[in-house]
Structure formats: structure tokens, C-alpha cells
Design brief:
By secondary structure, the protein is mainly beta. The chain contains 1 helix and 25 strands. Strands 1, 18, 19, 20, 21 and 25 form a 6-stranded mixed β-sheet that branches.
């Protein structure tokens, strides 16, 4: 009953917010059958990198804005345990192998590879793998993770929190922001907690930083699917503490991926491979809401 009341309360507080009907502006076809990340290339303008969720080979795909597959590149020696997001920075791809639905994984990692030439199917023969862990994780269910972004060469991740209700794990509406401060390939790198934000309305499934580094886009799934924009404070990396904008999304499906196409346009994708373009101007300013650092 409490879960139902929570959902109703969240819905009631969202009535004044605009709702964006999902439109399929492009569609990515097989073999991308469970799309879980998007990253627009700055090295190769017009190219977007994507990948499948868990169960697929360790491979990335280059597509264009129309969803056409330009190339497929296997990463030799890597493993897709549960790839959940991808980011592109400085000619490198950062792949988040941090999916942890059961909260039992001990092999969380981030892969880094040089961005290959998009076209064709040439394999990627070298990679760097950083083992990572959430220091406070323990037995709590809050430490699944589906969102990764890069700021000034530093890796950040956002948790996909769950809460336990009647002995069942249900979607949370908060997220913790962590920073990767060490880059050992031989030992586990403990992530550094930056802050926690409440009242997001749904669990976080993707994130990306704008080309100018000033605006963080965060995608939330259920119970209330929404796109958030956070303006980065001038004096810290507390992205989630900045002034926020939000747009509710309707009939979007299982939204799992987001990237900035340019300074004003975002591309959002769901697991079915449907892509929707959203303008920054469609989001509405909602000020600030509580954070717990």
C-alpha cells in the first residue's frame, strides 16, 4: 500500500510538469536488440557509439543519427558481464560493466579502448580494464549502476537505487554520484562518493555531459520516466546540486541510453532500439531539490 501511495504522490506532484510523448525519430535494427548505451563521437562527427546489454559479445557498434549501423567492433579478450553505459572522451571509449541487478557481483569494471575507425568490422585488440567497487555497498540493494559520464577526463557514475518493501526490491527515486579517482588495473579501485540526490522520481538508467561540460543529462526510468538536466556548480563537481530542469516522458518504453548530439539536442534510446530527439528548450526549470552529501 505504501508503494502505491508513493507512486500516486509522485504522480500528483508531476501534474504541473509538461509530458513529452515519445516519438520514434530513428530505429536501430538487429544485431542491436537490447540497446543500453549511447555516446556521440567528437572525434568522428555524426557517429554515435552503442552496445547491447548483458548476454551479448564484448562489442561496440558505430551508428549514425538515422540509426544506420556503420560498423561492428569486437573487443578481443573483454567480457560483457552486464554493460550498461558508454561514454566518449578524448578519442577513447569508456564502457561501464557495472550492471548488478542481484547485488552479488564482485567483478565490476570499466573498460577503456581507443575509439576505432567507425566503418567496417575490424576488431579492437587492446583495452584497459579498471576493477571498481562501491565502498559502502555491503548487502544493500542501492548499488546497481547503469549511468556513466566523463568530466574533464574524470569518470563519474550514478547508481540505480532500489528500496526493499515487503521483502521485494522496488525502484528507488534517489541516486548516488561517485567519482573514480584511481586507475589501477591490478587491484580494485574504490569509488569516491560525491553526493546523493533524492526526489528524482525514478531510478537512473543513463547519463551524459554536454559538449561544453556545463550540463549533465540524467535519464530516469520507472516509476516516473523523465529526462533531467543539471547545471554544474561553478565551484565543485556536485553536479546533482545544481539548478535542475525536467521533462516527463510518456510511452517511452525501457529507456536505457542518452547522449548529446550537440549543445542543444539530446538523443534518447530505449532497449528496443528506438531513438527520440529532444531539444533542451523542451525541459522546464524546477529549481533545486534536496541532496544528501
Amino acid at each position: 500500500m505504501r508503494l502505491i501511495l508513493l507512486v500516486l504522490l509522485l504522480a500528483a506532484t508531476s501534474l504541473a510538469q509538461p509530458v513529452r510523448e515519445w516519438t520514434v525519430d530513428a530505429w536501430v535494427s538487429s544485431p542491436i536488440d537490447e540497446m543500453s548505451g549511447l555516446a556521440a563521437s567528437r572525434k568522428n562527427p555524426g557517429v554515435i557509439w552503442t552496445h547491447n546489454d548483458s548476454g551479448d559479445e564484448a562489442r561496440v557498434f558505430a551508428i549514425n543519427k538515422e540509426g544506420k549501423i556503420l560498423g561492428e567492433h569486437r573487443i578481443e579478450g573483454a567480457k560483457n558481464s552486464d554493460w550498461e553505459d558508454i561514454a566518449c572522451d578524448g578519442g577513447k571509449l569508456y564502457i561501464s560493466d557495472l550492471g548488478n541487478n542481484s547485488n552479488k557481483r564482485k567483478d565490476l569494471a570499466i573498460y577503456v579502448v581507443d575509439e576505432p575507425a567507425p566503418e567496417g568490422d575490424s576488431p579492437i585488440t587492446g583495452f584497459t580494464r579498471w576493477p571498481v567497487a562501491f565502498p559502502e555497498q555491503g548487502e544493500k540493494p542501492e548499488y546497481d549502476c547503469e549511468a556513466l559520464f566523463i568530466a574533464n577526463g574524470t569518470v563519474y557514475v550514478l547508481t540505480k537505487e532500489r528500496t526493499v518493501w515487503l521483502k521485494q526490491k522496488v525502484p528507488g527515486r534517489a541516486s548516488r554520484l561517485y567519482r573514480l579517482d584511481t586507475h589501477s588495473t591490478e587491484r580494485v579501485n574504490q569509488l569516491t562518493l560525491v553526493e546523493r540526490r533524492t526526489a528524482l522520481g525514478g531510478w537512473v538508467t543513463a547519463a551524459d555531459l554536454s559538449p561544453d561540460g556545463r550540463t549533465l543529462a540524467v535519464l530516469c526510468q520507472r516509476p516516473i520516466p523523465a529526462l533531467w538536466l543539471f547545471e554544474r556548480p561553478s565551484d565543485s563537481d556536485h553536479f546533482l546540486s545544481g539548478r535542475a530542469k525536467r521533462l516527463l516522458l510518456n510511452r517511452a518504453g525501457q529507456i536505457e541510453a542518452i547522449t548529446w548530439l550537440d549543445q542543444d539536442t539530446l538523443l534518447v534510446g530505449n532497449e528496443a532500439g528506438h531513438l527520440c530527439r529532444i531539444s533542451r528548450s523542451e525541459l522546464v526549470d524546477i529549481g533545486k531539490s534536496p541532496t544528501n552529501r
